[in-house]
Write a structure and sequence with these properties.
Distance between the termini: 11 Å
Strand order of the largest sheet: 1-2
Strand content: 15-25%
Mean pLDDT: 87
Oligomer: single chain
Low-confidence stretches: none
Shape: globular
Number of strands: 2
Length: 89
């Protein structure tokens, strides 16, 4: 199952700075495209898209609960959409 998560750039950066480098969630965050390559026009410069599998999304969710509670709803939404898509495909 592929999970696509959209995070506010500020939430992504908070997670990236707060999650320990040895944590599995950090590896998921580091796979995101380089932010300096993103467009400078709205909405691209305000969001980060993370593609991961279901297990990685759950690891990211647990990290967000500890380090960036604002991101929890966005991660849960990505998980919910991917599960719904799996049901219809």
């Amino acid at each position: 199952m592929v999970v696509v998560i959209g995070l506010a750039r500020a939430d992504f950066e908070q997670l990236l700075q707060s999650v320990p480098a040895e944590a599995p969630a950090f590896a998921v965050l580091r796979r995101c495209p380089e932010l300096h390559r993103w467009g400078r026009e709205e909405p691209l410069f305000k969001c980060v898209i993370i593609e991961c599998d279901g297990d990685e999304a759950l690891v990211l969710l647990e990290a967000a609960k500890q380090h960036c509670p604002r991101a929890v709803a966005d991660i849960e939404y990505g998980l919910k959409l991917s599960r719904a898509f799996d049901l219809i495909s």
